[in-house]
Amino acid sequence: GLKEKEHLITVLEQKVKxxxxxxxxxxxxxxxxxxxxxxxxxIRLSLYSVEKKAAWRMDFNEDLNIVKEAVERxxxxxxxxxxxxxxxxxxxxxxxxxxxxxxxxxxHKKHLSSxxxxxxSLHKPTPLILADHEKLKEAFGNLLSNAIAATESxxxxxxxxxPFFDRVVVTIEDWGDGISPEIQQKIFDPFFTTKQSGTxxxxxxxxxxxxxxxxxxxVESELGWGTKFNITxxxxxxxxxxxx
Length: 244
Known about the structure:
The chain is of the alpha+beta class. It has 6 helices and 8 strands. The chain is globular.
């Protein structure tokens, strides 16, 4: 009868959802295993080399640097996992978004080659917003790192703010290879990545943190013409000072 068919459809839908969750879990496990196994292999081989060189009193600083980089990679992987899986309790206070972005750009410039340019166009005056400083810093940091990674040496990344009556729009754009429409639909999915390394959590964390502030994150991109992320944050945040 009709009820039996409806029940069958419900059961099938549940099985499809379960299969999708298991598939996503399998992809996540494979990425995490890859991101941890490779550095551990580097550590193991480098320590073996150190042991041999120490016996012959040879210099092994290069091996120790490899170990250090591998440990940092594992550390970044675990931090990404913790940040993504953690709660989004916000410590709300008044934030000068221009100052936050200015400091963030300065931090990133320290690690860039002299050929890479980060332009800023931070509109003044921009109203203060009520937000969690660290959550926004993490979100914008991930977006900025993503833009830098997409930009070739000698290229330019631009960070700008545009204030409106009740909101501030932050734009982070690059002139890299761009993103195809098919990939654009997946870039905010957890563990999705087109890179050789990385957890694929950077943009997912950025989206999670922005939306925790009732904000909006949108992407505009065209192959061969670069990518632009527009983040809208509302001035009148529907909360209060303190923890929400």
